[in-house]
């Protein structure tokens, strides 16, 4: 039975405070980086994976590890290196000479939250194994297929500075990630707080706020968040504007876009906007929700041309122009 907007809103109002509790617990360990933490929560609530780009030392590992503890889910960190094999990720069959049988040894991917550090360090076969697991939510070892735990979230990181000895992700594979989040340096005040916290370490008690079962319940509620028909049209216009800018009076950026966003962009804009509305305590999506998460969903799906690169124009710049031009319902 379909619920009314008022009923959905009442349920959201009752449930969303738990997300604030999660953020508060993570902030006991973290200083700043609220944007990354919120995007990770959106990914978990909308069943999407996150690609994080930022230089080393910005607490990416600390943030997701702490989040996993607060949510009471299993966490694994996998350092991607050029000599990594797919079996190191997914697992393998082990032969026993004693009785001539094979046993299955599952790999580190069998956890709720996976941090794949420097995903662009691993060769294409390893990247493909990871991305297949992300898409299918299962892993095949030998002749047996194993479902991955639920919920299942991959947070992949890549260093934007050092590109030597890396295997850049192809555009089609990057498209599997719901969002690409850019992590920036802390401001001066945050940096001072970080120094003080490290200089005088104290024992911090992290309270466990969620559970895997509760996360799956919240996902169902997020799916029911109201999304107006006019907003579906708004999302379609945004995505189509990345493919055919001239149809939306954006002729001046047509030559700056090599490829526009795929249909996954439309799907993830809707999903992420619903989760963002939930984080604000609303049972309905507004155009501002779409605008807020728009750049994170689109920046890795809008490929800029050589001409744009020569002018130092980024996909973020083009996305901002598109949002400014498309009429808000």
Helix content: 40-55%
Roughly what is the average pLDDT, rounded to an integer? 86
Count of all domains:
2
Structural class: alpha/beta
Question: What is the CATH superfamily of the largest domain?
Answer: P-loop containing nucleotide triphosphate hydrolases
Short description:
This protein is an alpha/beta fold and 329 residues long. It has 15 helices and eleven strands.
Give me some keywords for this one.
329 residues; alpha/beta; Rossmann fold; Helicase, Ruva Protein, domain 3; 5-stranded parallel β-sheet; two-stranded antiparallel sheet; 15 helices; globular
Written overview of the protein:
Helix content is 47%, strand content 15%. It has 329 residues and is of the alpha/beta class. It folds into 2 domains: 5-82 and 110-198 and 209-214, P-loop containing nucleotide triphosphate hydrolases (Rossmann fold); 225-325, Magnesium chelatase subunit I, C-Terminal domain (Helicase, Ruva Protein, domain 3), CATH 1.10.8. The protein has a 5-stranded parallel sheet with strand order 2-5-8-1-9. A two-stranded antiparallel ribbon has the order 3-4. A hairpin with a 4-residue loop joins strand 3 (91-96) and strand 4. Helix 2 packs across helix 3 (34-45), helix 2 (17-27) crosses helix 4 (60-71) and helix 3 (34-45) crosses helix 12 (263-279). The chain is globular, with a radius of gyration of 21 Å. It starts with a helix and ends with a helix.
């Amino acid at each position: 039975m379909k619920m009314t907007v008022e009923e959905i809103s009442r349920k959201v109002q009752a449930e969303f405070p738990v997300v604030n509790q999660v953020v508060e617990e993570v902030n006991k360990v973290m200083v700043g980086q609220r944007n990354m933490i919120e995007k990770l929560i959106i990914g978990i609530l909308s069943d999407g994976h996150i690609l994080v780009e930022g230089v080393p030392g910005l607490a990416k590992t600390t943030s997701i590890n702490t989040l996993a503890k607060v949510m009471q889910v299993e966490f694994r960190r996998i350092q991607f290196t050029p000599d990594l094999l797919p079996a190191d990720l997914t697992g393998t069959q082990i032969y026993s000479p004693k009785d001539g049988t094979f046993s299955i040894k599952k790999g580190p991917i069998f956890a709720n939250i996976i941090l794949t550090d420097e995903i662009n360090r691993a060769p294409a076969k390893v990247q493909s194994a990871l991305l297949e697991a992300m898409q299918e939510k299962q892993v095949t070892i030998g002749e047996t297929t194993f479902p991955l735990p639920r919920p299942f979230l991959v947070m992949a990181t890549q260093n934007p500075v050092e590109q030597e000895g890396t295997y850049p992700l192809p555009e089609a594979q990057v498209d599997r990630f719901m969002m690409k989040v850019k992590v920036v340096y802390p401001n001066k005040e945050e940096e001072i707080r970080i120094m003080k916290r490290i200089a005088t370490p104290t024992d911090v008690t992290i309270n466990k706020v969620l559970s895997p079962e509760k996360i799956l319940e919240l996902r169902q509620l997020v799916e029911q968040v109201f999304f107006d028909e006019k907003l579906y049209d708004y999302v379609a216009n945004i995505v189509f504007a990345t493919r055919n800018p001239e149809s939306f009076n954006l002729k001046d950026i047509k030559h700056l876009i090599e490829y526009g966003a795929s249909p996954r962009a439309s799907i993830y804009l809707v999903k992420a906007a619903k989760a963002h509305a939930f984080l604000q305590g609303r049972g309905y999506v507004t155009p501002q929700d779409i605008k807020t998460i728009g750049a994170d969903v689109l920046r890795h799906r809008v490929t800029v041309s050589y001409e744009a690169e020569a002018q130092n124009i980024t996909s973020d710049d083009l996305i901002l122009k598109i949002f400014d031009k498309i009429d808000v319902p």
